[in-house]
Amino acid sequence: MINSKKWIEICSEGLTSHEVNAITSIEQNFIDDEKKSSLTVKCKDFKTLYQQTNSIFPWKGYAGFRLADHKNAYEFDLLIFTHCSILVIELKDWHGKISNTNGRWCLNNRDMGKSPVTVTRNKTYLIRNKLQKIKEKFHNKYSNIYVDYLVVMTGKATFTELPEAERNYVMQWENFLKLKDEEEFRKKFGHKDKTSFIDPADLAKEFFKEKTIPPKPYRKSGYIAEEDALFVHPNHLYKEYLAHSEEIKTDLALLRRWDFNQINDNSAKTPDGRYRIVKHEYDVLEYIKIANEDLFNSCLSHKLPPIKEDITAQYTDIFSYSPSNRSFNIFIEQNANKLNKEERLQIVYLLLKKLSNLHKIEIAHRDINYHSIWITDAKKITFSNFISAYYPKKGTIGNIRDILSVSGIKDLAFEYFPITKPTSYVQDIRSATVLAWHIINAKSISPNNIKIFAEEIKTSNDWYADIFREALSEHPFADGKAFFDAFEKKIPKQKYDFTFDESKLDYYKHPYHHNL
Predict the structure, then answer these.
(1) What span, in angstroms and rounded, lies between the C-alpha atoms of 228 and 242?
(2) Neighbouring-strand partners of residue 146
(3) Which domains does the chain have, with CATH numbers?
(4) Which tens digit of pLDDT belongs to each residue from 2-17?
């Protein structure tokens, strides 16, 4: 587990990006001092190394992991093994004024939970217990090693209103980085014996002989996320996870975990810009709710409205989610082959009808793809991911749409059926055409399957083929309504009846694995 060549071992699954950035900065801050001590002098033990270099380095760190005993399990942001101690470090990227009310910390008068000083102190008991076992094993080798702890503020937070007993264990980021200076280190922890020198890497190796446990599942507002993401944006702007309520297991949600640091646009670097990105989708959905409530019920909607102060570089949207929903590819891979062609065509019929209704109220989705269409056992179609959508009240999200959209500025058919300056509505129907063919043929969306579609649709004699070819032409249908009307008119009524009948699908209802 311990790599002696690395300063800090990082288990990034247990950390947010701001914590990873902070830990990387810590490593870089101390690296020059490490080089002085470990690269210029070769010694057989750490004490001799100190005598020759007068340096307390190298130290050893381990970040983003969990440890447990028979009673408790704790997450650790950073554990530092120094020449004389083990430091438990909690990182807080907070901005504003911090105060303590009855043992709970408030940030700008908002309750942030139990005091991090108390929480971090409790973590030290587990570390002390593990250290005691090591001391007993090695007798006097680690007898003078002690355990201490700090809460380090990486954001611009003030904590002068905290009780003095807590302030002693809280440090500003800039002051923490000064601990690389031995005098600064001894000012902070100077009550310990200067002659206590151990090799931090040796102690860390012994400490982590027993495996750590994986980071605990991500929690947000009472929902616990599944370990594996259901969808990852191709540029890692966000990840989406299925989640369930801690209290009611059947209460499901979709968590979208934004990483605005991945967005290469200045608007994502400011609170106002991030709020505008998140709120745009909320506003679109609110517009749909007023214009067509039935259509709104066919969309994944926010459980809570976005609050500007909450939208930091790491932010989580929470959407309502029906237990029967399946993302497009998962539904196709798990269920489509069990449906006959008429039943698959009925799903296409409902998809195009929903798109028609969307365009009737002048909403253009502009990112129709496998991540934004959901299908249930009962053949209900649900839309999601209106991040880049156009709507009449405020128009578009702007140029950043090209970055936010999974499809970018192109629709799913563009590579094989290029078109000059299509409208947003036309782009929607072109992507919907690709999805429709994949539904009919029980194929999931992939580059290879889209290539097969492009070849087959050119020569297909199926009754819907002419409609699809027109949708992909240089002179396509104007919008989803015209597309749906043409499709509906072309249906062989004597052969197909798309009247909704849920009971026909009872046979196919069974538990699903959401991640394939």
Answers:
(1) 9
(2) 85
(3) 8-207 (no CATH), 219-508 (1.10.510.10)
(4) 444 456 777 655 577 6
